[in-house]
Write a structure and sequence with these properties.
This protein is mostly beta strands. It has 9 helices and 27 strands. The strands form 5 sheets. It has a 15-stranded mixed sheet that branches. Strands 16-15-20-21 form a 4-stranded antiparallel sheet.
Length: 420
Amino acid sequence: MARPLRPFSTTDLSEPVRGYRDGYLFSLSLGTPPQLMQVYMDTGSDLTWVPCGNLSFECINCKDNRGDRVMGSFSPSLSSSCSRDVCDSHFCVTIHSSDDSYDPCAMTGCFLGSILRGMCSRPCPPFTYTYGDGIVLGTLTRDTLMVHGSDQSVTKDVPDFCFGCVASTYMEPIGIVGFGKGALSLPSQLGFLHKGFSHCFLSFKFSNKPNISTPLIIGDSAIASREEVQFTPMLKCPMYPSFYYVGLEAIFIGGEILEVPQILREINSQGNGGMLVDSGTTYTHLPQALFTKFLSVMGSKITHPRSVEHERKTGFGLCYQVPTAVTESLPSLSFRFVNNVTLTLPEENYFYAMAPSNGTYIVKCLLVQGMEDDSYGPAGVLGSFQQQNVEVVYDLSDERIGFHARDCALLAISHGLYKK
């Protein structure tokens, strides 16, 4: 018989996140005794999964991912509280995307009579889970998750947390903790979908530095009203109800307004459109037609020499040789969301130095990308690179997302998360 869902009731939680390569890592502590793993924090998915078996874990088409093994892997045999999820659990039905709750147990070979009587307790069949270009293959597993309170010295154990024990992946070398709104997500399993969470991603210059992190806060204190946070309503998406969408109304480049198509402002009757807020996507993506105009307007306001060589090497649309003696010489960039919420990005959130200065100039490239003008799914994506030094508040109670530009390194210091 499937174990019932048991909401986890606790006070606010606070977990450190830090930059690594092109994303942000979350510390996941699973098992008895606890096994620590570093996984990417992803608001664009629900499943939490970890590599299982340090030697047996396989990552196909991952180039050289040997360095990623320091992130840790999970060994079920070393945990006394670990067990496989069963085929008639809600999580098993969810991971197999089945409209019929009997399907997973039927896949295991149980007789219909035992399925109907709720007597089939065979393990949930292996699953696949897709991320853009990546895929993971694994089994649903239950174990104790250790979390931290607002005071990092206080810990709590969450029994029967459900996650994927993954043996092989395609282009996914590091595990992921899902922060979507679906049943499998961490906020959902811990009972925080009626509250919310917030994060403040460090500048990319701190990437790969394990001595500094910022708090990812889950609970009431994350969504407490503050004048400096501007809120825009979440858009409801029947096609992808687990994800976080907002409406983008306009883009400002050096003070010039760039109108955006209606598909970015709202989600249509087919469930398509809007802008996805996704920490699992690195760069912001705009519809190709809008992106072409975006490049044209941005380029018209910059007089520095183009670096065609870097554009060719990196694939980014605009790269410039910016004199080292010049400061604030690039156009400002702001996004205006529904409810007149304007987010003005720091320059380092969209122009990034691709190489050290040669003494005369430094090459900076515009890190915004285009996406197919496809009518299916989100029309645009607000990626994690553009969320640096921005406090992002996911108020799930009032169904809104807040933005507040701030120095996230100062937040790290105030929480004692900067160890010099």
